[in-house]
Automatic annotation (TrEMBL):
<dbReference type="InterPro" id="IPR009839">
    <property type="entry name" value="SseB_N"/>
</dbReference>
<feature type="domain" description="SseB protein N-terminal">
    <location>
        <begin position="14"/>
        <end position="127"/>
    </location>
</feature>
<dbReference type="Pfam" id="PF07179">
    <property type="entry name" value="SseB"/>
</dbReference>
<protein>
    <recommendedName>
        <fullName>SseB protein N-terminal domain-containing protein</fullName>
    </recommendedName>
</protein>
């Protein structure tokens, strides 16, 4: 059986990450990523009002091996299950909107951390590369 040239199970955001792995200055891929929705895991300790209120997004913060805080987001449920199989709730959030409100501290963002082409951005990188009006 031939492998299809186009895999429709791969999201546009996932294809954008793959393109950025080859060319970090691919503006089309960055624009696609910024306009895509990502899955933001809802922390188990988030209250019901945070989980249900569309204006509140509780960010799950993990600690990297060097101790730096990072927020993981994902392009699909399988990507999220690969790294966080115990997470049962998530919110679909436009990445550009999330980036536009990103905190100014040293909080990084990682997209599909367990994939072949993950993307991790510093706080400044999130705001400058992904924030869209």
């Amino acid at each position: 059986m031939d492998t299809p040239a186009y895999d429709n199970t791969v999201t546009p955001a996932r294809r954008a990450l793959d393109a950025l792995a080859e060319n970090t200055e691919d503006t089309t891929a960055l624009a696609t990523l910024a306009s895509s929705e990502v899955l933001v895991p809802v922390p188990d300790d988030a209250g019901q009002e945070e989980a249900g209120d569309a204006s509140i997004v509780a960010l799950p913060v993990l600690e990297q091996t060097d101790g730096a805080p990072v927020v993981p987001v994902f392009t699909s449920e399988p990507e999220m299950a690969e790294l966080l199989p115990y997470v049962s709730r998530y919110r679909l959030v436009p990445l550009g909107a999330l980036a536009a409100q990103w905190p100014a501290d040293d909080l990084s963002l990682t997209i599909d951390a367990s994939s072949a082409h993950p993307l991790t951005l510093t706080s400044e990188g999130v705001r400058t590369l992904l924030a869209r009006p």
